[in-house]
Automatic annotation (TrEMBL):
InterPro entries: DUF2141. This is DUF2141 domain-containing protein.
Length: 172
């Protein structure tokens, strides 16, 4: 065999092996990348989450209607005038007698929460002819409503700007 024929055969052999080698390397690189990326926590890919006040509503009697959570930063209008004076209002559909209100990006301060189970979805706490609530209600700190709504001070809590998890039990 001539020297040029040997060179051509050697080059052809390298070309064949490189064609078969690189797809295998490509598959390995892709597989390795997928494995590495899937092992990273999801927080790496998501935007930074805002801290907030997270409220789990407990003891919901049924899944009828909605839960309305009102966050107040002062005693003005607490708790009955939430439409006019609440800092934030959140209305959540009840799913399997569960609801959670998340107030995000809230500045540091002192707050109080009022929650109602608005079964008839009229935007207010239904009462009987004596003024006794006929729908569920609750307040932060489990402040009790005896002979009227609790004061802002009884329901207030400090918030330092970090995540705060609260539970509010409904009374019927």
């Amino acid at each position: 065999m001539s020297e040029s024929a040997i060179r051509k055969a050697a080059l052809a052999s390298k070309a064949r092996h490189s064609v078969t080698l690189y797809p295998k390397m490509g598959k390995c690189v892709i597989l390795t990348s997928v494995l590495v990326l899937s092992s990273l926590p999801t927080s790496v890919f998501s935007q930074s989450s805002c801290h907030g006040i997270h409220v789990n509503i407990l003891d919901i009697q049924n899944s009828t209607g909605v839960v309305a959570c009102a966050l107040f930063e002062s005693p003005v209008g607490f708790p009955t005038e939430f439409m006019n004076y609440a800092t934030n209002i959140m209305v959540i559909k009840i799913r399997d007698t569960r609801a959670r209100c998340d107030f995000l990006d809230i500045p540091q301060g002192t707050y109080a929460l009022a929650v109602i189970h608005d079964e008839n979805m009229d935007g207010a706490l239904a009462t009987n002819w004596l003024g006794v609530p006929t729908e569920g209600y609750g307040f932060s700190n489990d402040a009790e409503a005896s002979m009227g709504a609790p004061s802002f001070d009884a329901a207030s809590f400090p918030y330092d700007g970090r995540d705060l998890n609260l539970n509010i039990r409904l009374n019927y």
